[in-house]
Amino acid sequence: MNDMSSPVALTKKDFESNQDVRWCPGCGDYAILAQIQKLLPTLGIPRENFAFISGIGCSSRFPYYMETYGMHSIHGRAPAIASGLKLARPDLSVWVVTGDGDALAIGGNHFIHAMRRNVDLKVILLNNRIYGLTKGQYSPTSEMGKKTKSTPLGSIDRPFSPVALALGAGATFVARSVDTDLPHLSSVLARAAAHKGTAFVEILQNCIVFNDGAYSTLTDKATRDDARVILEDGKPLVFGKARDRGIRLRGMEPEVVTLGEGGVAESELVVHDEKAAHSGLAFFLSQFDTPDLPVPLGVFRSVRKDSYDELNAQLHADTRAKKGDGRLADLLQGGETWTIG
Amino acid sequence: MSEAGYTSEAEVNTREAIGSGSTETAGASSVRAVEALDSVVIRFVGDSGDGMQLTGSEFSKAVAKAGHGFATHPDYPSEIRAPTGTLFGVSGYQIQYGSRQVFTSGDAPDALVAMNPAALKTNLADVKHGGIIIANTGAFADTNLAKAGYTSNPLEDGSLDGYRLFKIDISALTAAALRDSGLSKKEVGRCKNYFALGLMLCLYGRPIEDEIADIYEKFAKKPEFADANVNALRAGFAYADAAEIFAATYQVREAAAKPGIYRSITGNHAAALGFVAASESSGVELFLGSYPITPATDILHELSALKHFNVTTYQAEDEIAGICSTIGAAYGGALGLTTTSGPGMALKTEAMGLAVMLELPLVIVNVQRGGPSTGLPTKIEQSDLLQAIYGRNGECPIPVIAARSPADCFDCAIEAFRIAVKYMTPVILLTDGGIANAAEPWRIPDVATLPKVEVSYRTDPEGFQPYARDENLARAWVRPGTPGMEHRVGGLEKDFLSGNISHDPLNHQRMVDVRAAKVAGTAQDIPPTTVEGPASGDLLVIGWGSTYGTIAQAREKAEAEGRSVAHVHLRHLNPLPPDLGELLGRYKTVLVPELNMGQLSKLLRERYLRDVVPLNKVQGKPFKVSEVHDRILELS
């Protein structure tokens, strides 16, 4: 399990803090917490080198439950705080845990700029499509027409897709999973942890109190296989209980087709490519939604680009190589001087 | 002012002798009289595209090299290139220099160089009666006169009879000098400011050789512009030298400054150097998270060029991210710095509260400007004092200090970090648009004598409690990455020792009390207050920030006139110096001049329950010495 360089073999238990977890019983956040607590000991990183930064909201209580360094900061600002921390301390593994309101409403600006800059952060967005901590208002991912405490007549706000937003902002790693599919969640989180640069994972998460069943078609055994398509790099987009359905392109439009006898051949289907030079395919996939198209889960995009912290370190190294180590006395005496006396 | 290293003897104001009252050599002669002066105030004004900031700062450099004390005041519009010829597009640069310490950029210019009618119109009222006006007649055409709202040409209609007016067609003379330069008409027009500079350097007896070398350096990549500017400069100098309109040239006596190596420095530049000094002193990385905003941005510019030092700069996506990235860096163990001006300060408010809760060291610089809202971005004001002390939700104390002059920004930058790391608290440093962009001579300090900024991180997990405190009530600074001390912090109220979330009523009371006591306790390091003038008596003038020079000069003048008047200038505004209350009691009257509506007055009344006399001004301009001096005379 553990990396050989890690002096002490860590376990999930080592990452559980002594604080009582205060999410509602049955909240999807529990499963996500457990998966991350399971993942971290496998990464070969000393426990003290993890820092979890969060904003405000149910999901942002996350750091309290991790026996790592952590900060429960202010609403929407976690990506900004985490960026500063990572730049000051490139040796740390810095994680942001956020929610749909925290990341996409009040923190939207920090979110897109974190995606754009490609600072080496792991950004985990727990998307329950509702404001939970303030007891049930619609969020930027709530669907049109949704009735909530602040939209008693139904929402007239168009939602956006966190995955599409992250891709649009230029993120180098974008993935989606769901709180109830533990093996899938675990593999996506492991991929994110291994990515150098900003890694963004949207986790569809059930709020049992204010938005129960928001993803039931994606999670219920009876419906889920027809409602979602699992993305695998280099593999055609095949889904369905009998794995007999696929996505084919007609011009620029996707269409669901039936495979096999009387249907189309697998070779006609769209083949997923996480590393495509152009993010067009990933963006195309991010637009899929039920009922017309299956919701993609998995890694949409994973490309290696220099991270901001790497470039920053390079800039410093290059400047020192060119100018030598800065000396304060020289700096103070820089510019034009004159002597008196 | 010890920062500038000048002798503190009272400046005898002799500017009266410089203007109309001075003796001109009657009639022009080939050997002109050289008039010796103690100080002189010159203002260059023109369109914002005329290059007046450059002319002014180059003139400052020339007088600095001669060892003069000086102080400058750039005054420019917030538009980058306002429409030409308009009143609101006028850009100016004023300098006072002299043979002794110069406290301010001066009240009334002895000489005004006006490049167009709008510049004349907007500045004439300030010029000393009988002062010199050099007007670029080439720009006084009908359209420009109309844009400035003149119905007749003031150069011809006798309205300037009370001044010594020199009408020089700078536009045409520059064009003539550059006839063979091969430059376009527009490019030639851009060289006018060097003609004006040459003219003024000659008039005030400064050589042009250094300036020529400087131009060649500055325009090394564009030799044709270098040649043109040098030719314009020479032409201006030669014109003044040969033309017989100037009866006398003016030589300011050499300054008697403290021996040392000097440089000219602006407040923003000095602050940047001070922050680097704090980083070098502590051996800890400096992290600046900032968003561009006038007039604070030059600190970001300066520090971003210093990647060979232990300095990281981060241009954040907004003001909030500026401070939040800084909080992240401070959490990681860096010296966190964020720089802004009033509106940005408002945006950073919530994050400042977080830093107070986290008890992390942080320095927040507010280069104040005219407010409220966007206000007057390029103009001076001191109206963010109460915002700095009180402007946050909850009981949220933060130490506040203020710099008094451009050079003092260096010392204050170090002081801000000294307080921040010793007490584990955010600290607000107030400067303003006046000192941030103004320059003064700075005697470069010996690095070995700089105040120390001492940082220690706790690494011992034995008995560790995140919110346990030392004798200064500071909690330990523990960097992530330290084994065995993993813990969580956050904006929710903390348990007194463990730092875990606590909603316990008595714990909250205790935490509010201890945060207040910690900040109040920073007063233990404040040195005894320096009083300029008598230790007791009729009148005490108390100021803070950039009004220092004006008040000092006004006080010295009044004292020379036999008045009993003392001056205290506060660096520490929250908490106030421990001896201030007793000190106030020693004077019959306390006068508080401020470029706001009475914010320090309010604080002093509230804190010491005694009345003070406010002197307030919010015009986007510094006080004139005469304004403070007049009030002193009325009260002493």
UniProtKB/TrEMBL annotation, chain A:
Lineage: Bacteria, Pseudomonadati, Pseudomonadota, Betaproteobacteria, Rhodocyclales
Heme is among the record's keywords: no
Pfam families associated with the record: TPP_enzyme_C
Keyword presence, Magnesium: no
Top-level taxon of origin: Bacteria
UniProt keywords, alphabetically: Oxidoreductase
Gene3D superfamilies: 3.40.50.970
Stored InterPro entries: 2-oxoacid:Fd_oxidoreductase (IPR051457), THDP-binding (IPR029061), TPP_enzyme_TPP-bd (IPR011766)
Entry protein name: 2-oxoacid:ferredoxin oxidoreductase subunit beta
Domain Thiamine pyrophosphate enzyme TPP-binding, first and last residues per copy: 56-203
Species name: Aromatoleum anaerobium
CDD domains with a match to the protein in the record: TPP_OGFOR
SUPFAM superfamilies: Thiamin diphosphate-binding fold (THDP-binding)
UniProtKB/TrEMBL annotation, chain B:
Segments for region (Disordered): 1-25
Domain Pyruvate flavodoxin/ferredoxin oxidoreductase pyrimidine binding positions: 287-493
Matches recorded under NCBIfam families: OAFO_sf
Annotated keywords: Oxidoreductase
Domain Pyruvate/ketoisovalerate oxidoreductase catalytic stretches: 49-237
Protein name per the record: 2-oxoacid:acceptor oxidoreductase subunit alpha
Species whose genome carries this gene: Aromatoleum anaerobium
